[in-house]
Design a protein that fits this description.
Blueprint lengths: L25 H25 L6 H29 L9 H10 L5 H25 L7 H28 L3 H21 L36 E2 L14 H7 L5 H10 L5 H27 L9 E2 L8 H13 L3 H13 L3 H33 L5 H15 L4 H5 L9 H6 L2 H8 L10
Parallel strand pairs: 1-2
Helix pairs in contact: 1-2, 1-4, 1-8, 2-5, 2-9, 3-6, 4-5, 4-6, 7-9, 8-9, 8-10, 9-12, 10-12, 11-12
């Protein structure tokens, strides 16, 4: 799968700084700001493609944080480009750079990817930004300098994170060999490119890719920790099944939606820039919710590793349907029980659990708003489907009602949707539908 962007043409003007490396005119800056915007945007998508390959849940969580960071950087850079040029359109800086990104994202394994992307590409991007800043005037270009000074420490932290993981992984000789092979390939490719900013004249030929069968991005199988206890359904552990602690387990299990969401982030082409800004925050929020649940369970004296998570291995293929159902069913239909749990926590004096539920509700409201905003756009772009949001939601409800005997209704032991008459099915509202599929037999009175 190749990453595509909402980009219509290539820049063709050669960047030439006529005042050495000490001053830079606006017209010259526009090229570089566009380039850095593009690099942060594409970096977020490439990282998303590799999240499913990460074996540790903490690694997945950190990578989604980097995705959101990079899209936040890209958004600020894009705004600065708009200020400089009156045009916020992001253009591919060159065909050569596009080919470079496509090629060096296709590593043979997770650790070679980390080494190539973070320890070479991200580090080179940092150096390119520093070269750019050397030519900026402290008065003329103060807004740009202020913005880049905010970025750089965070980009260095990304490199440091990857370095520590790679450093530990290469104790294995086979991993060391694969990491060194791929990292050397990326280094040579950067030289061939003339640097990430392409400011040097390339005197080398394009290196030959050492990997015949890339593992990623968007691997066919999702990776997960060896220690993870996997369940096939949402049956809660007995320790939390009859009390309010079940909600902390629910939050912990939200990590299982992150890989599918990253397949979507990587694989959905022709979507506007703003979609990736919104969706990167959505994905990062899900890992935050997972961490919130893990932390609270630990505070309650549990070892979260003892609790199972429904966590499949197969990659998702119906990207559009997954996103629509996640936001319009999974999240929209959760507010009543979450609000009730929050009120119960506060009433019984469990302030930390109440705050956990309250923050989750705040985030979920944003996610539902994102879904309402982007679902019709996704269906139109992907399928030429001109249906309204309400019509798409109706089709989702119909599918759930058709599958209720073997779907969530079966797990509840009371498939309410399948009991609806034909007339009731036609008239049921989204709100009433949510009430039918809510988890049953929850005990809101017992901490």
């Amino acid at each position: 799968m190749s990453i595509q962007f909402e980009i219509e043409k290539f820049e063709s003007d050669v960047l030439q700084n006529h005042m050495g490396n000490y001053w830079m005119r606006v017209s010259e800056q526009i090229h570089l700001v566009n380039r850095f915007t593009f690099l942060e945007w594409i970096s977020a998508r490439v990282i998303a493609g590799w999240v499913p390959a990460a074996t540790e849940l903490e690694w997945k969580s950190e990578m989604t944080y980097f995705m959101w960071q990079n899209m936040s950087f890209a958004e600020k850079l894009r705004n600065r480009k708009d200020e400089l040029s009156g045009n916020s359109k992001v253009l591919i800086p060159s065909e050569k750079l596009q080919s470079f990104i496509q090629d060096i994202s296709r590593a043979g394994g997770f650790f070679p990817f980390l080494a190539g992307w973070f320890l070479e590409v991200t580090k080179e991007s940092i150096q390119a930004i520093e070269r750019y800043m050397e030519a900026l005037d402290p008065i003329f270009d103060a807004p740009t300098i202020e913005m880049l000074n905010d970025f750089l420490p965070k980009k260095r932290s990304q490199v440091k994170w990857a370095k520590e993981i790679v450093h530990d992984a290469v104790k294995d000789k086979e991993v060391l060999i694969s990491v060194e092979l791929w990292r050397n390939y990326v280094k040579q490719y950067i030289k061939h490119l003339g640097g990430i900013d392409e400011r040097e004249v390339s005197a080398t030929v394009e290196p030959v890719c050492p990997v015949k069968e890339p593992y990623g991005p968007a691997p066919k199988k999702r990776s997960r920790p060896q220690w993870l206890k996997v369940s096939d359904n949402f049956d809660p552990p007995t320790e939390v099944g009859d009390n309010l602690k079940i909600f902390m387990w629910h939050y912990m299990t939200e990590i299982q939606v992150v890989d599918p969401m990253c397949y979507i982030f990587y694989g959905l082409d022709d979507m506007p820039f703003e979609f990736f800004c919104d969706f990167s925050r959505h994905i990062w929020d899900e890992t935050r919710h997972h961490r919130m649940g893990v932390r609270r369970l630990q505070q309650m004296g549990f070892n979260p590793k003892d609790f199972p998570i429904p966590y499949g291995e197969d990659a998702i293929e119906e990207l559009e349907s997954y996103y629509a159902e996640l936001t319009m069913v999974g999240e929209t239909c959760s507010f009543s029980r979450k609000k009730k749990s929050m009120d119960s926590y506060y009433k019984q004096g469990d302030i930390l659990s109440g705050m956990t539920a309250e923050i989750d509700i705040v985030d979920e409201r944003s996610h539902v708003r994102f879904g309402k905003k982007w679902i019709p756009v996704i269906y139109q772009q992907k399928f030429g489907d001109q249906r309204s949001l309400e019509e798409i939601i109706r089709s989702i409800m119909e599918r759930w009602m058709d599958q209720d005997e073997s779907g969530l209704g079966r797990l509840q032991g009371n498939p309410e949707l399948s009991k609806l008459t034909s007339d009731e099915r036609k008239s049921i509202t989204h709100f009433a539908f949510c009430g039918k599929i809510e988890f049953k037999n929850l005990n809101f009175d017992k901490l």
